[in-house]
Amino acid sequence: MKSTTEFQQFKREQRKIVMVTAYDYPGARYAEAAGADTILVGDSLGMVVLGYDSTVPVTVDDMVHHAKAARRGAPATCIVVDMPFGSYHAGLESTTRCAVDMMQRSGADALKVEGAGEVIDVIRRLTHVGIPVVAHLGLTPQSAAVLGGYKVQGRDTAAAQQIMNDALACEAAGACALVLECVPQQLATRISAQLAIPTIGIGAGPGTDGQVLVFHDLLGYGSHRVPKFVQQFADIGTPLQAGLAAYADAVRSGAFPAEAHTYNIDDSVLERIYG
Ligand code: KIV
Ligand code: NA
User: Fold this and answer.
1) Nearest residue to 43 via CA among 30, 28, 29, 54
2) Is the CB of 43 under 6 A from ligand 1?
3) Which of 33, 108, 148, 159 is deepest in the core (most CB within 10 A)?
4) What does the record give as EC number (predicted)?
């Protein structure tokens, strides 16, 4: 899809939305060529690409830098970019300035923010400004320290009710889609039925209107600590490691570079210099 206006059309037509993360030019090219409906430049960037152990250190400039690369790789795909930790919590004025800056510099089609509460006002304001906003409820990694780690959310009645209410509030505030992360499938299915906007699940079972996975997790590309909800659809890490090891061996043995990789001049050229 080209823009987030198609999100609701997909839902009306009961077509599953395929979302995948990407953080650079080649990743986004592969995602677009594979026919992903939408790309998320997630702040999971911090963990799978930058090697931090949470999303907290990721900055606005990090997100913009990677989103621009993803945009160049996927010029025809709707790209959603995460607002990083802390960038939408210092009041609506600074949030608006930050969001406008991210939109103008990154080439994003939409921004994503985590949580409800005061974030509902953020969704309303940014939507009013003309920025499509994707909401994100359930496990919200930017607040993992407050949630007590990375664990399933909405398991008891009160917590499930809270997530349902928050989902309705996100929709009422103008969110164009809702990511549901790590919630029981029964709850995700209910929320998906209640909302007119599509839900995009990750660890939320098959009842959502779409699915999202982290690029590195689904391809076995350098990510360790892969959660239960991930299916690994390919293992690119093993051939990648083998390829690098073969290169190292070939350099050390002198097998690389071969004649085929080498440029030549006539011997007479250097004879004129060196005799
Ligand atoms: O940053 C990310 O990759 C995300 C998805 C897991 C939804 O927010
Ligand atoms: Na994220």
Assistant:
1) 54
2) yes
3) 108
4) 2.1.2.11
Report which bound ligand comes closest to the CA of 181: 1
DSSP 8-class letter at 24: S
157 alpha carbon – ligand 2 mean position (Å): 26
Token readout for 45 is 């960037």
| Contact between 139 and 147 (Cβ < 8 Å) | yes
Pocket of ligand 1 contains residue 44 by CB under 6 Å = yes
How many CA atoms, within 13 angstroms, populate the side-chain half-sphere of residue 110?
Answer: 29
How many whole angstroms separate alpha carbon 74 and alpha carbon 79? 8
What is the interface pTM, i.e. ipTM, of the complex?
0.99
Which residue puts its alpha carbon closest to atom 4 of ligand 1? 42
Q: What type of residue sits at position 69? A: A
pLDDT tens, position by position, 140-196? 999 999 998 999 999 999 999 999 999 999 999 999 999 999 999 999 999 999 999
User: What number is the average pLDDT over the span 222-249?
Assistant: 95
pTM above 0.95, yes or no: yes
- Per-residue pLDDT at 200: 98
Find out if CATH 3.20.20.60 is the number for domain 6-235.
yes
DSSP labels, 125-167: HHHHHT--EEEEEES-GGGHHHHTSS-----SHHHHHHHHHHH
Q: How remote is the CA of residue 40 from the centroid of ligand 1, in Å?
A: 7
Ligand approaching nearest to the C-alpha of 84:
2
- How far apart, in whole angstroms, are the C-alpha atoms of residue 97 and residue 88? 10
Query: Does any ligand 1 atom lie closer than 6 A to the CB of residue 202?
Result: yes
At residue 166, φ and ψ (nearest 5 deg) are -65, -40
Hey, what amino acid is at 128? H
pLDDT tens digit sequence for 97-117:
999 999 999 999 999 999 999
